[in-house]
Amino acid sequence: MTAIYLIGLREGLEITLVVSILVAFLLKTGRRHLLRPVWAGVAAAAVLAAGFAALLQVGAARLSFTHQELFEAIASLVAVVFVTWMIFWMRRMARHMGRELRGRLDEAAGLGPFAVASVAFLAVIREGLETSILFYAAAQGTTDSVRPLIGVTLGLLTAVALGWLLYFGAVRINLTVFFTVTGALLVLVAAGIGKYGVHDLQEAGVLPGLNTLAYDVSGSFPPGAWYAELLRGLINFTPAPTVLETIAWLAYGIPVLILFLKPAKTPAVTPVAS
């Protein structure tokens, strides 16, 4: 559940912050009557995201073994793309997100409740669909269908609680540090998801080398051991991975983690001649 909890926490806090910005803006500008359309848009986005997650699960279950492996591989690779785009987008746009959302909501308020609901819906649905895809991809490989649901639910509930406390000033969190730490952990999660996608492609016969192992440390990581489960849940660690799986993990995880943790360049200030 570790990786799925982290996904729920990260994505849930982003959603909570977005909703908090919209609600606070309406309250501060005396537009309390527009809160209902905002909540309607948020609810519609939540229902659609949950329906999409259920559709992924049901649709995959109806496929043949080969097609199911291909479907899971594609979902895993799409999830890796989403994670990569999300963490770099958040690092670049976090400072301007509030101003952009308030600007959109201010324009929508002049057009009516439906426009306000649309702004809230669009602001939340992107995170909701990302959460659905990441949840589906991260939950692959587990034989217990309940634990992933518990993990994502706990992550979302933790995010809502943190967002609520932040909104009322009960706690203070350095969001830059929070998103940097969780972003780095999500890079490792994405590397594991990509590794699982490569394994699915090998299972489906698209890629070779299913029986060519990079190493085998099964004796040191017995099934059911807490440390083995923690590593498997967080970075999709397997004690006997194939060569291609290992290459995929390293080829993605190392360079992306270095790029993400690399300090962002600050624009140079050109002196004004007097």
Automatic annotation (TrEMBL):
Record key words, sorted: Membrane, Transmembrane, Transmembrane helix
Subcellular location: Membrane
Family matches, as InterPro entries: FTR1/Fip1/EfeU
TM region positions: 6-27, 39-58, 70-90, 111-129, 149-168, 175-193, 240-261
Keyword Methyltransferase: no
Topology of this chain in the membrane: Multi-pass membrane protein
Family classification: Belongs to the oxidase-dependent Fe transporter (OFeT) (TC 9.A.10.1) family.
Entry protein name: Iron transporter
